[in-house]
Design a protein that fits this description.
The chain has 235 residues and is α/β, with parallel strands linked by helices. The chain folds into two domains: 174 residues, Nucleotidyltransferase, domain 5 (2-Layer Sandwich), CATH 3.30.420.10; 41 residues, no CATH class. Helices cover 42% and strands 15% of the residues. The chain contains nine helices and six strands. Strands 3-2-1-4-5-6 form a six-stranded mixed beta sheet, sandwiched between helices. A hairpin with a 2-residue loop joins strand 2 and strand 3. Keywords: Exonuclease, Hydrolase, Nuclease. GO terms for molecular function: exonuclease activity. InterPro entries: DnaQ, Ribonucl_H, RNaseH-like_sf, RNaseH_sf.
């Protein structure tokens, strides 16, 4: 695989159902050389834990100034076009991105390569196959681990190094179709609708919100968003 887009996401957590993307980072590689980059911070609709803030170094002021998820996802889709993708434990990022893309009526069907799987097959002597371990093995200094763009760049670097170290292993470096089917969205439950309506009335929110047309995920996000910005209802 000579031409591809290496990408990485930072999220509020590990759950596809509850968590959200807060940063997208990607590098475009053509014939082994970087030809473009994409990076953005997403303004979240839910509170981000101190653990994630400390892990990533993305502070709350940066998040406050972030762009919308729709703008970030559509920008990435335009940047990556139909290129195959590369990632370290790529399915984690692929699932989040595919689900986000689907929420805005976009497809994200790609072939790809997982550097974690490649390292497990080719670098069995290493203590573990974490991205930081691969970077150390190839004497590459990742300037900002757990930031999306820097991790995407590091992933591309170690991929190119593995290709050089194992030139005879051509098949393992070839992209294959990534398989993940986004679950069909279910309509918001009666309990969600009632609670959301109560929150809207309690906080006197003037924003027009069509509760009846929401999915369970959208209702949950909206509830989290209102509580995050306005607080819970006090008895």
């Amino acid at each position: 695989m000579k031409d591809y887009v290496a990408f990485d996401l930072e999220t509020t957590g590990l759950s596809l159902e509850r968590d959200q993307i807060i940063e997208i980072g990607a590098v475009k590689v053509r014939d082994g050389k970087i030809s473009g980059k994409y990076n953005c911070i997403i303004h979240p609709e839910i509170e981000v834990s101190d653990f994630i803030i400390n892990l990533t170094g993305i502070d709350r002021n940066m998040l406050k100034k972030g762009i919308s998820l729709k703008e970030g996802v559509e920008g990435f889709l335009e940047f990556s076009r139909n290129f195959p993708v590369l990632g370290h434990n790529v399915m984690f990022d692929y699932k989040f991105m595919k689900k986000a893309a689907a929420s805005f009526k976009h497809n994200f069907e790609r072939e790809g390569v997982d550097t974690l799987k490649v390292a497990r097959k080719l670098l069995g002597e290493l203590e573990n196959k974490k991205l930081e371990t691969l970077c150390a093995h190839y004497h590459y200094v990742n300037q900002a681990a757990h930031r999306a763009y820097d991790d995407a760049l590091a992933t591309a670097v170690v991929f190119e190094q593995m290709k050089k170290e194992f030139p005879e292993e051509k098949d393992i470096f070839m992209p294959r179709q990534l398989q993940y089917k986004v679950k069909k969205e279910r309509p918001a439950t009666a309990k969600q609708k009632k609670y959301l309506a109560q929150l809207i009335a309690y906080h006197a929110i003037v924003e027009k919100i069509d509760v009846d047309q929401m999915t369970q995920r959208e209702a949950s996000k909206k509830i989290d968003h209102i509580i995050f910005n306005y607080g819970v209802m006090k008895k």
